[in-house]
Amino acid sequence: MKHVLLTLSVVILCGFTLSAQKVGYIDTELILKEIPEYQTAQQQLNELADKYKAAIESEVGTIDALYRTYQSQKNNMTATQRAAKEEEIISKEKVVKEKQKIYFGEDGIMAKKSEELLTPIQNRITAAIEVLSSTDEYVMIIDLAVATGVVYKNAKYDLTQDVLKILKIK
Prior knowledge:
mainly alpha, 72% helix, elongated, disordered N terminus
């Protein structure tokens, strides 16, 4: 009996404690769309990515042409010539794969440029969220842009516009 009363007391106390807690949500995708620096950074990143993709595609085109030429001429080549041409093609493919890694890899140029351009913006948003959460004493703010499985949201708890006000965007 004491165990049941103790459990019931804990459940009631937790209910009162949780009801006093404030929870809200934001949508960082909407916030980012409103930040001009983000739009500029995205444009710069897209232009840089297009430049690197074009360079890679050009080299891949060269390799494809080299391979097609090899395929059409290999019957007229000696075994040594075929091996040399195959090695040349394989070598060029390795160079292209290495360039792809340098440009688009985890520690590549694009990742570093993205971090350079976007981290300050992300830090500003995080700081604004922290100001909002400490000012209004929120215990949890959920980001709908990364939260999967949200089946219902009440606009009353949407803090996106509040974050934009802190960022002085709206």
